[in-house]
Amino acid sequence: MKKRLYVLMATVLLAWGQIKAQTLSIREVGGWFESGYVTWNLVEGASSYQVSYRISGDEYHIIDGELVRNYGTYGRADIVGLKAGEYQFKVTALDAEGNPMDGETAETEMVNVRAHDRSGFAHLNHSGVGAYNDDGTLKSGAKVLYITRETAKTVTCDIVTNSKGTAQTFTGLQTIIDAKQKGYDQTPLAIRIIGTIEAADMDKFSSSAEGLQIKGKNAAAVLNITLEGIGNDAGIRGFGILMRNCKSVEIRNMGIMLCMDDCISIDTDNSNCWIHNIDFFYGKTGGDSDQAKGDGSLDCKGDSKYMTFSYNHFWDCGKMALCGMTSESGENFISYHHNWFDHSDSRHPRVRTMTVHVYNNYFDGVSKYGVGATSGSNVFVESNYFRNTNRPMMISLQGTDIAGDGEGTFSGENGGMIKAYGNVYAEKSANFSLITHKQSATGFDCYEAETRDEQVPDTYKTLVGGTTYNNFDTDANKMYTYTADDANDVPAIVTGQYGAGRMQQGDFHWTFNNSVDDTDYNVNTELKNAITNYTSTLVGIFGVGNSDDNTGEGGDTGGDDNTGEGDNTGGDDNSGNEEDTPTTPADGNYVCHFTGRTPSNSFYTIVGNYSNSKGQATVNGVTYTDCLKIESSTSIKFTITDAMTLTLVFAEGKVPNIKIDGTKVAAESGNIITYELEAGSHEITKADSHNLFYINLTPKAGNVVEGLRIGECDNLPYYDLQGRRVESPTKGIYFRGGRKILVR
Question: Do domains 2-114 and 570-699 have the same CATH topology?
């Protein structure tokens, strides 16, 4: 038996060696909403991989290293922030020095990237919810944070904290988000989750009830935050998210497991927020009898308005969505579309006071009820697919709600009005009940319209409360533009490649037993155990291992220029040709390097992260191994009183680019960029991801002025030919005010 086991182990090891030794090849590639992914086999001798992308007809652009991950038996990269179009990806294996390995490059076929569906009230008269533009690219100047289990406590970000524009550095995810609450910093912030973040991984929680809190200074404060998962396995477990006073917040492409109370609670005075492509799982068991599956999945209340909840997947959730309480000031306007209510029990949604559009959702084996309307609410239920949903719609204290015993089965509150059109009711059980106004003009569950644009006469009103329908859906001043899918097509759309939940429908898979789960609203013990014991196969980010390199601070995929496609880095040119490389000036008073991973010259105001594992650069005979990583958050600011020449030296072996005062500048060859600057304030920021080792400023050459004697020298700064400042010039040639001066 032992011999057979040893033979099996040897076979497995041999197979592993064969996998590691073969030439790099693509395993899988695909496009999704404003993103794409590629996986590949691992290569023997490769320590990391460089991944780049191009839209059809363009050049390749390198993505951030944090997006390139190791899954043990394969590598995976996700490219985010893309406009819709046809894209191709390229993977290159890198050796221990970060250089491309000969012959170890593979390109994918072209894949289609679609735009997100931005239908819904969140985008009505508001563009760019969160950190992204409506074309899917990052907003100009957006900062990007990469959050892993290792970096949730240590990630840093500079946030403006006063009216003078002064920025402070904050450490830890919750601490950074809390700093935005001061209200002085509306810089777009994309927070990218990699892998599973557990409650214990967080620096702290600002909501004792929910966990992570996103809060503005006052009602509907603009935050411009996107909290997004990367790939198909990103999520949080053991806590949820509370939103208060937020405007322009987006949460997308992540799973939420075993939350404290609600998975997402949109609690007070929020506006124009968008929750989409989320996998909602069980929460922790609460103390009340109706909290066995957690308290709520996605609640929206406290006068929150102009919200869109779309393409979400609800896995056997209990109380899916409470929509409204009693504090709403108006119609508020909420959209639910293309969600998959997968054997969830009730509240799809349960609406108080709000005006709500529920369309193109898949009600898949709902054991209690679908849409419930109370407290003077108005709900348009359009083109949904109800499969084995016994009570698709109910109005409080009338129709199905009081059938049998005359008492409300889901609410004792005043009624709300429902208009229904184009819905499909499939696999009706013997307990199915839907009473339309055609069956009962007073005790109906909904007004069943003949056409989408039909208005509900005010003669139809709720039995309790006397509410009439406000016909918001036919009012062009209130309604957004959209095209509803045919209800018969909804199941295929919602469960398909571009459907509800995370990319590729996530990495967690479960098959419900419809014959049991359609009618059973108890906790599915096996499902809950699977959620509790779930682990991702993520090993980590390639190339990350040194503490200095694991900051979680990262760059975008080229969104700084507002195209989402980045600019060519020339990274494929690894010839090292130095023939046309500018000569590095002698060291002077304006030299800055990063030995010890800190700036050597306080003349420059630098915000960014440092590393000692990004190659090297040799300048004037000195080899530097510590660098400043050029990422989305990186900023180098300085002010000069004279025209000067800027010299930037990057990692050897790659042709760099950079943005200087917002203009992209690229080296023609080699690893050095020189740029002429006029007097004034300047800033260096990211074009594409590179690593900077050395900065210098030297006086700019100009006309020679002769005949200036020592005693005639004014108080302007003088610089020698090596760029060193000279307080008392003697005889010789100097630079002053952008001109060459001969002092005699």
Answer: no
Looking at the domain 285-523, which fold is it? Answer: Pectate Lyase C-like (2.160.20)
Which tokens is 538 given? 């993520």
Backbone angles phi, psi at 168, to 5 degrees: -120, 150
Listed in sequence order, the residues at least 6 apart from 558 whose beta carbon sits closer than 8 Å to its beta carbon are: 61, 81, 564, 565, 566, 567, 688
Q: Classify residue 248 as exposed, middle or buried by CB count within 10 Å of its CB (0-12, 13-18, 19+).
A: buried
Q: Which candidate, 265, 169, 284, 174, places its Cα nearest to that of 531?
A: 284
Q: What share of the chain is helix, strand, coil (3-state, %, to 5)?
A: 10, 40, 50
Show the tokens assigned to 452: 């989408």
Q: What angle do CA 593, 599, 604 make, to 5 degrees?
A: 100
Q: How far apart are CA 283 and CA 463, in angstroms?
A: 36
In this structure, are residues 40 and 106 in contact, taking their beta carbons and an 8 Å threshold? yes
Query: SS3 for 504?
Result: helix
With residue 371 as reference, give the H or E element that holds it.
strand 371-374
Three-class SS state of 25: coil
Give the span between the Cα atoms of 7 and 4, in whole angstroms: 5
Say if CB 367 and CB 520 are below 8 A apart.
Answer: yes
Q: Which amino acid is at 355?
A: T
pTM across the whole model: 0.74
Mean pLDDT by groups of 10 residues along the chain of 744 residues: 37 38 87 98 95 94 96 97 98 93 96 98 97 97 96 96 94 97 96 97 96 97 98 96 98 95 94 98 72 78 96 87 85 97 88 97 93 96 96 95 74 94 95 95 97 98 97 98 98 96 95 88 88 93 55 37 35 38 72 88 90 88 89 89 87 90 86 89 91 88 47 58 63 59 61
Q: Identify the pLDDT of residue 571.
A: 35
- 3-state secondary structure string, 100-150? EEEEEEEECCCEEEECCCCCCHHHCCCCCCCCECCCCCECCCCEEEEECCC
Please give the distance of CA 96 from its chain centroid, rounded to a whole number.
Answer: 30
Of 652, 674, 521, 517, give the one whose Cα is nearest residue 577: 652
What is the distance between the alpha carbons of residues 735 and 719, in angstroms, rounded to a whole number?
A: 5
Give DSSP secondary structure letters for 718-730. Answer: EE-TTS-EESS--
Q: What are phi and psi of 450, to 5 degrees?
A: -80, -30
Q: Which two tokens stand for residue 493?
A: 């759309």
Q: Where are the domains of the chain?
A: 2-114, 285-523, 570-699, 704-743
Which CATH number applies to 570-699? Answer: 2.60.120
The architecture CATH gives domain 2-114: Sandwich (2.60)
Cβ proximity of 584 and 697 under 8 Å: no
Structure tokens at 321: 């969505």
Are 282 and 528 spatial neighbours (Cβ–Cβ below 8 Å)? yes
Cα(163)–Cα(536) distance, rounded to whole angstroms?
Answer: 43
Q: Whose structure tokens read 């990103």?
A: 234
For every residue of 562-580, DSSP letters joined together read: TSSS-----TT------TT
Q: Give the CA count within 13 Å in the CB-facing half-sphere of 425.
A: 16
Residue 474's pLDDT is what? 98
- pLDDT value at position 552? 34
- Comparing CA positions, the residue from 636, 690, 633, 686 lying closest to residue 192 is 633
Q: How far is CA 563 from CA 12, 81, 137, 145, 228, in A?
A: 46, 9, 6, 20, 19
Of 333, 325, 293, the residue nearest 309 (C-alpha): 333
Copy the structure tokens of residue 465.
């409360």
d(CA 726, CA 724) in angstroms, rounded, equals 6
